Amino acid sequence: MKYVTSFFSTLFFVSTGLYLLPHSIADAVTLSNGTLAQPAVGIAFTEPPRLVSASTPYGTTSFPNTTYYFTLEVPATAGEPLQQVTFNQIQGTEDIKFNQKDTFAFEGTRNHQGSKLALKTVKGDDKQQTITVTFDTPIPPGKTVTIGLQTYENPFDDGVYLFGVKAFPSGEKTVGQFLGIGRFQFYGPMTTEN
Question: Which of 9, 35, 50, 146 has its CA 20 to 30 A from that of 183?
């Protein structure tokens, strides 16, 4: 009987302690890297968007004015709308330069384009090799969107070029979440023998 009373006494204190945990801890979100993001720290996705694909119609080196398409899926369970996406070149022998004023976005995929989406800002940072795209109206959960980054030209050097993609929800203080890597392979022009 003594042990039963002790057990119920301990159970009562533990359950009371759990009940009294601050509400913000209960609302915390575990990020894909295992860290906890609390609302006091910043707004985060419950389930981050997914990088579906990264592609370009022209994989030849030095090809002028081509577009790099990045398709993102915002899951219905995201918990927050998508407001901003950053692209960071993390590999490649040359820095690829983008024509920021010609950046665009639309609902759907490259092969199944839907309605055009307005962009609030497009900002590049050559030193950090990043470009940041902010939607005029946040993209609600359950949507698929594609962002088209227009280049001045493909790199002169062939090889693999990688871009890290990070998404930010709507709000004042937000926590960006890494979505994955967009991979582009560029080949030199074919030479023909006479």
Answer: 35
